[in-house]
Predict the structure.
Amino acid sequence: MRSQDLSAALLELQQQHRFRQRHIVETPQSCEMIIDGKSYIAFASNDYLGLANHPQLIEAGREAMLRWGVGGGASHLVAGHFAIHEEAEEALAAFCGREAALLFSSGYAANQAVITSLVGRGDAVFADKLNHASLNDACLLSRATFRRFRHNDLQQLEQLLASTPARTRLIAVDAVYSMDGDEAPLKKLQYLADKYDAWLYIDDAHGFGVLGDGRGSAVEQGLHGERLIYMATLGKAAGVSGAFVAASSQLIAWLVNTARSYIFTTAQPPALAAAVLVSLRLMADEPWRRQRLQQSVSRLRESLSEVNIPLMASRTPIQPIIIGRNEQALLLAAQLKERGFWVPAIRPPTVPEGTARLRLTLSAAHTPDQLEGLLDCVVEAMQP
Ligand SMILES: *Cc1c(COP(=O)(O)O)cnc(C)c1O
């Protein structure tokens, strides 16, 4: 893109209804937010358990800031690996039932770390078509042969695995698909990974804290083994920031030694690790958050299917309504906004062309009244 071409390119984005703008949030993340100066009931965050603004997390972060300061100041390998980081890693490993865990500043960085450290030229990575963009970027950066299989199509995946000449193979999937809310068939994927001697890398950004007893998709489905690598983010249900990888001690040692997005970046502020520890405790001790979330999911699905609004196959807090055209999705989102509900319209390239959607996300913090209010408005806006 040359400088003199920018204005025409931006105009084109606008004409395609693909132009993106940020909106200014003036409250903490929660169900009631002031955005661009107006109050809304928000159904837009990934703060599924309502922990992002929890007093105990805030207090833990505040105290830890007094103890550890604000900035990490150095990368983990230089002088930035604090005792509180180490403690959080041990707690995360124990929580997920794995030997070891490694903290990252973001899920984006964690995906890059795992994939580029394990596969390179001459190797092969097999990825679901609907994987998160951060996984796709990691696969491209790895320089391994990058084969994408149709969404959840294990037959196609098996054909690809059976015919690959690559020595090192890695299967990478989202456990919960972020724009659809449906899930990967993890048990069957594990079977294929074992059969074809491939790593199975699971990105559980949307399952951690939410599925099973909170320990996420892999634990819920009883996955285990040396080939299994689990990643979850800490900025979604955990309500903090960053991500972690849980795996064998050897794999973690390999990442510490070779993962460029781990080595060449400043450690997360240590106070965040203290907040993560509290978050893990709340996830374990307060199952009512998941129960409330589940009730909202059921209520939303029941209510929308009664009026024949088509839903995706999702039991998770991600409940999209496919609209189709970008313009139409934007119009509906604007109508909901007018009525005081903040629901994002998700458009290509985040989702495939022609599948623009309203992406409703639920939180344990939503009250039944807030949900009923939203559902009434959605139904009204979508009536022909
Ligand atoms: C949000 C998300 C990420 C990125 O995590 P960040 O911590 O926000 O960088 C990775 N994978 C999936 C599936 C996600 O939804």
